[in-house]
Specification:
- There is one protein chain.
- The chain is mainly alpha-helical.
- The chain is about 75% helix and about 0% strand.
- Helix 9 packs across helix 10.
Length: about 260
């Protein structure tokens, strides 16, 4: 069945969010200087710190944020409340700098995943299903493109296709064995794929918080932009999935690419 005009308008807004994330530009406007300035101020080991913190954050959030969340009924998501919480963690991270990332990022990521799951539930996702919960984690991989990426590998549908097999295998494993199977190869592979993309956005956040003028107050604002970015990704992704349930994946993708 063809999409209604209102659904096409919704899909157009979703595509704008999913294909033009612009987090780096928003942060640069906030601090009044390119993020490269922040990168120059970071110690030589910063990328390894980011990579380690990113993986740990996803592993922690997968357990705490999603498997403790009630599937419940679809309700309006509490985006503002989650932004306030993540902003508070950003204030601490901005004041303490890179050493605090290993503590701050898992907390921020857990709150963000709760927010993304809240958005998913409001869009009609069944959070009792492992597939739906892993779709929430997958949102962390969207919008992580940079100027150095191959354009053929960066679009929303390209990112979904790249992770589709890993998501399906991890969901099947969790459905059979539950959360105790989190260390299983299928789940580890998925976390690795998501972490490699999520770390790009985390690097932009860390670079911004390294600029001296940012500090605690700026750290809160940077973190607010951080969660706002992923809330937009979540809203776009689960709008697409809702339309796919109604009209089929092929039809939705065809219309999406034509916009």
């Amino acid at each position: 069945m063809a999409l209604a005009p209102t659904e096409i308008d919704d899909l157009r807004r979703a595509k704008h969010s999913l294909e033009t994330p612009g987090l780096a530009a928003k942060i640069s406007n906030l601090i009044g200087t390119p993020l490269e300035k922040g990168l120059e101020m970071l110690p030589g080991s910063w990328q390894q710190v980011v990579n380690d913190a990113t993986r740990k954050s996803i592993e922690t959030a997968l357990e705490v944020a999603l498997w403790s969340m009630d599937a419940g009924r679809p309700e309006r998501p509490s985006n503002r409340w989650h932004k306030l919480l993540v902003g508070a963690t950003g204030a601490a991270g901005g004041a303490l700098g890179l050493p605090a990332l290993a503590i701050e990022l898992p907390v921020s990521t857990t709150i963000m995943l709760r927010s993304i799951a809240d958005i998913a539930r409001s869009s009609g996702e069944d959070l009792d299903a492992p597939q739906a919960r892993l779709e929430c984690v997958q949102v962390l991989a969207f919008g992580g493109s940079s100027a150095h990426d191959d354009g053929a590998e960066t679009g929303y549908f390209a990112a979904r296709a790249a992770m589709a097999k890993a998501v399906s295998e991890a969901a099947a494993h969790l459905a059979r064995h539950g959360l105790s199977a989190q260390g299983a190869p299928a789940v580890v592979r998925l976390i690795s794929q998501i972490a490699s993309r999520f770390s790009l956005i985390v690097s932009e956040k860390v670079a911004a918080q390294a600029v001296p003028v940012v500090g605690a107050v700026g750290g809160a604002v940077v973190n607010t932009l951080f969660i706002d970015h992923f809330q937009e990704m979540g809203q776009g992704h689960f709008l697409v999935r809702r339309l796919e349930r109604l009209h089929g994946a092929e039809e939705v993708r065809r219309v999406y690419q034509s916009l």
